[in-house]
From TrEMBL:
PANTHER family: STAGE 0 SPORULATION PROTEIN A HOMOLOG (PTHR37299:SF1), TRANSCRIPTIONAL REGULATOR-RELATED (PTHR37299)
SUPFAM superfamilies on file: CheY-like (SSF52172)
Gene Ontology terms for molecular function: DNA binding; phosphorelay response regulator activity
Keywords: DNA-binding, Phosphoprotein
Domain HTH LytTR-type, chain residue ranges per copy: 164-268
Modification 4-aspartylphosphate, positions: D64
Residue span, Response regulatory domain: 8-126
Origin species: Longibacter salinarum
Name of the protein in question: DNA-binding response regulator
Any Pfam family matching the protein: Response_reg
Amino acid sequence: MSSHLPLRVLIVDDEPLARERIHTLIENEDVISSEVAVVIGEAQDGSEAIEKIERLRPTLVFLDVQMPGASGLDVVEAVGPDDMPLTVFVTAYDEYAIQAFEWAAVDYLLKPFDDDRFVESVRRARKRLEGQEHRGMGEALRDLLSEHGTEQASDDGAEPLERIAVQGRGETRIVHVDDITHITADGSYAELHTSDGTHLIRERMKTLDERLDNGEFMRIHRSAIVRLDEVVSIRRKGGGDYAVRLRNGERVSLSRNRIDALKEHLGVD
């Protein structure tokens, strides 16, 4: 590919607003010139990303890390590190992600990112392509997959989440984990309950359960995670069902097969 041709960009994110933000930045001539980059497609999940990377052959992909189903790293593994285009990972999960990306020498955007940081990522990609440094991208991605595999295999490897980015119309709000009283599932979304309201994110309960500090949070039902120090009582409801009552008076469903584990965590009989 001639170095004067624009970067052919594929945007991969399960959040429509997140895709729209990157698309808008690239199409804004005041931010990114069309001679530098053009959007050739979008994908809303890992499966679609794999198909479009193989069919459209982009030179640059903005790849969300956390997506329902196949994650960004699953996409890299499926396509193959040596067959991936230049890749900028996009993530709202900071501690582990930053360490892994910097260790593997791959670029990333941490949500929420500003215009300058985005422009810098495009410039880096352009420079890497023009200098033919993209031939080392496969090695960097293999290193990242290796680091990810090691981290996943370790119970204590990943740092617990400290904050979560919530995408809204026109803005991204940061919710600090310390402010969360409990989390409930709502279809393919999760509701973060805090003292100042409820915040909706597209994330699996399983992923949140794995990324939250298990000394502070516990999944007590397939559709509920609670902050342990918010629990004030365990109650039996009609029909043999159970629930916990939180300090704020809310009741959250409790699975019968989680009662003993919850009591152990709380240090009660």
